[in-house]
Amino acid sequence: MPKQMAKGAGSSTSAPRDLDILREMVELLDSSSALTLSYQRGDATFEVSRAGHAAAPSAPVQYAAAPVAAPAPAGTAGAIAPTPAASTLKEIKSPMVGTYYGAPEPGAAPYAKIGTRVAPGKVVCIIEAMKIMNEIEAEVGGVIKEICVEDASPVEFGQVLFRVDPNG
Predict the structure, then answer these.
(1) Among 27, 39, 67, 134, which lies 20 to 30 A Cα-Cα from 77?
(2) pLDDT, tens digit, for every residue of 57-66?
(3) Minimal CA–CA distance to 3: which of 29, 24, 21?
(4) Cβ atoms of residues 98 and 128 within 8 Å
């Protein structure tokens, strides 16, 4: 097991809970390829990193939607058009770091497989983070064309889980 470096802040009354959070973060870090993990609860921030990769103090992370490129005008000479298959598929991405599970329990039918039609709000998988099972719902409707991760594998925030054809 790699050496770990941890730091956290919290009140003395929440110290046992803080230690539980740190222990779970270390376990999650051991099972993933991430170099650091950060968790914020109220005014307390917890950071865990692999030895030799000390985390710099950071402000709370804010996420924004990626900008959407405007389509090129018709007849633009020399423009490189994306392939039709890549341009029409929508991605369902992981909203957190954790472990991906395609089914609700071992041996059960998967939530989604290639060819499954999904609607926004339909559960497509589970991501386990800090021993909490989080149901991940489709943000787009269509037919699943690609499953991009293997069952029981670690995933990162923003990693593509599924590619969906909204026209399918």
Answers:
(1) 67
(2) 444 444 344 4
(3) 29
(4) yes
pTM above 0.85, yes or no: no
CA-to-CA distance for 53 and 96, rounded, in angstroms? 21
Q: Which tens digits make up the pLDDT trace of 15-52? A: 567 667 767 777 776 776 666 667 666 666 667 666 55
Residues paired with residue 144 on neighbouring β-strands, in sequence order: 164
* 127's tokens: 């991501």
Long-range contacts of 49-56 (CB under 8 A, 24+ apart): 49/4, 49/5, 50/2, 50/3, 50/4, 50/5, 51/2, 51/3, 51/4, 51/5, 54/5, 55/5
Q: Which two tokens stand for residue 7?
A: 């730091």
